[in-house]
Amino acid sequence: MDFNDSPEEAKIREGVRAWIAEHTAEYEGLPAPASNEEYVARQRSWQKKKYDGGYAGITWPKKFGGQGKGPMESIIFSQEEGKSAAPTGLYAIGLGMCIPTVFTHGSQDVIDRFVPKALDGDEIWCQLFSEPAAGSDLAGIRTKAEKDGDEWVINGQKVWTTNAHLCDYGIIVTRTDPGAPKHKGLTMFIVDMRDPGVECRPLKQMSGGSDFNEVFFDDVRVPDSWRLGAEGEGWKAALTTLMNERLAVGGKPRYSPDWSTLMAVAKEIETALGPASEQADVRDQIAQAYINDQGVKLTQQRSLSALSQGKTPGAEQSISKVVVAKQMQDISRFALDISESAGFMAAAEGSELAKLQGSYFGSAGLRIAGGTDEILRNIIAERVLGLPGDLRPPKDTPFNEIEAL
Amino acid sequence: MNFDFSDDARELQAQARKFFDAEAGPDSARRVMNDDDIAFDEGMWQGVVELGLTALRVPEEHGGLGLGAEEACLIAEEVGRSLAPVPLMSTMLFTEALLAAGTEAQKAAWLPRIADGSVIGCVGWGEGGTQVPTSMPNARMTKSGLTGMKAPIADATIAHVGIFTGARTAGPGLFLVEFDQDAVQVEAVTTLDLVRQHGRVTLKDARAEAMGGADAYGDFLDKAAVLSAFEAIGTQDAAMVMAIDYARDRVAFGQRIGRYQGVKHKAADMYIKQQLARAHAMHGAWAFEVDAPELRQAAAAARTAALDALAFTAEENVQLHGGIGFTWESNCQFYYRRSRALSAALGSRGFWSDRLVRTLERRNAAAA
């Protein structure tokens, strides 16, 4: 066993580090963007640099404009990018999930039209999947697409669409045949987010922030050539997206408290019995936090090691998100608890307590986004451990005849 | 990067697993439990010796195989999985104590006999009360010998030699005691684990040889924690498989109970806890193998996480089986009982989680 890069990986890392250091200097110490325009401009400038430097679409096949390299190259780049001041995030969904679906299921014309402009950062993409009545049960979506000559007409509503208000295009799953069984009547399209029939309404989260939207579609017309995959094969296309999502999500947010946060907070708190960090219940929480944080990191190392060795990682990675999200909530709550009144009153911006207050709310969202704790446990139990699935209506029941039990 | 066991280590594990699958498991554990006259399965022990499992970590110059920590860890996992009623863990821990804290003469005297299976060893720090492994022992060495009481000591009733803690100025140190002397009395004690026999060792001015002091003992404890984490993960995995098999089979309200999320999510939690424990245990195996400065931290995390996973799984395995799981005839009790044995064997979760935090604090202070 060893935790070092192979000589080949070390060489790649060295090159990546030098390139990133040279190209991120201008972002060092910048204040947070003051407007959406500034945010987009900053993100776009970084994506363009990556594109020009040959670091965009690292694992994508060359014929789609990618670099045709292995997963380790991409992982090394992300690791180094994450340590730098590079402004990342806006393109994660588009390039991580949407465009791989486009080049897997789209026609050559569609690929030629959309993939290069997405990769160089010109056009920003979002993913229009969840609906008010279909979240965990994604295949239950109701947004309609009806054929009209060479076009499709889309009507309905999506929700939880991250960055929809900043995007140029999206991939959308629609129901094209309500009389077909649930998973058979779906079709996926590309949709123009600037179409006058598309309305984005920002959702305000319980944290007070606004990262995602409700999106309404009112007679939005898309050409049949923008279909991704065959009519009725939308579920298959959606699975491509979701498989890519699992590769993309699972890491933790940039700020995420861990055992050392808790230790630092506890050290500063004086109680009648001495520093809080000397008390058994606090120490137990710190230990538990370490077990979880470091356990997830080491589990990721196991998967990376397999990739590095040219092997297929095992199922161990399936635990990451479910552990990380709940852990973030537990640590934040515990740290706010032992901070007593100070943990409850709005803390000074930028302070450790303010970050903990933020992550107490952020974690509540993280436990739901990209697969709830419950869905992820179902997946582990069914796919990894081989337990039988929930009982469901017979698979061939037409969608519009399914009744709630 | 290569954060995985070597192919050679995996191959050895596969051989051991094949052997224990055929010879050990709950049925053999039950035979030993039901017969008060047997403390272990002698036939199986012969097989273990023939497979070379007692010689694994013994250096070649002492007649052993000279293998590394990786191999030992994976064998510990198989002992844990199979509940094998043989004194292999005790003998492996005895070997590690000799390697970490023994003099050259002590190694030369005992390691060859460990390797060829002619000697069974045991180790112990407990004195039957509420001490933790780092408490100052009551056992004390004077000019006339080592005096004290050690219990519960796994496999003491069948061992030929033991390594025990005794008071030293700087904390507990280790002492090597041959059992074939009048000053050493060993009797069986009843514990919550009815398969792995434990003993009480009473020493009255016993001939004993001093080994390493507090530092060497600390080093041994960390290595023992890594091995015991793998043993616990093996036992946990067996209990998890048992629970899953039952959930796939048992029908209630017209469906297999594994379809219910109340059942399914418990199974997922068993897996999640196992994966966390396994990642820490592998980190510990690495630190053990290369003698990394992270060993103490990794060992404490591995043991804490493994005890968590095992206690949860052993308890929920009974729960998922319902009434049948609570019966004497069910095999659930073996994992439930072994969970207690492994917790008591080396200091409980609370001791190790505190040791973990203390190590992290020291590391932070050193970095500051």
TrEMBL record, chain A:
InterPro entries: Acyl-CoA_Oxase/DH_mid-dom, AcylCo_DH/oxidase_C, AcylCoA_DH/ox_N, Mycobact_Acyl-CoA_DH. Residues 232-385 form the Acyl-CoA dehydrogenase/oxidase C-terminal domain. It comes from the Bacteria. Residues 126-220 form the Acyl-CoA oxidase/dehydrogenase middle domain. It holds the Pfam family Acyl-CoA_dh_N. Signal peptide: none annotated. The keyword Flavoprotein applies. Residues 6-122 form the Acyl-CoA dehydrogenase/oxidase N-terminal domain. Keywords: Flavoprotein, Oxidoreductase. Transmembrane segments: none annotated. The keyword Oxidoreductase applies. PANTHER family: ACYL-COA DEHYDROGENASE (PTHR43292), ACYL-COA DEHYDROGENASE FADE34 (PTHR43292:SF4). This is Acyl-CoA dehydrogenase family protein. It comes from Pacificimonas pallii.
TrEMBL record, chain B:
Residues 217-349 form the Acyl-CoA dehydrogenase/oxidase C-terminal domain. Residues 6-117 form the Acyl-CoA dehydrogenase/oxidase N-terminal domain. It comes from the Bacteria. Keywords: FAD, Flavoprotein, Oxidoreductase. InterPro entries: AcylCo_DH/oxidase_C, AcylCoA_DH/ox_N. It holds the Pfam family Acyl-CoA_dh_N. This is Acyl-CoA/acyl-ACP dehydrogenase. The lineage of its organism: Bacteria, Pseudomonadati, Pseudomonadota, Alphaproteobacteria, Sphingomonadales.
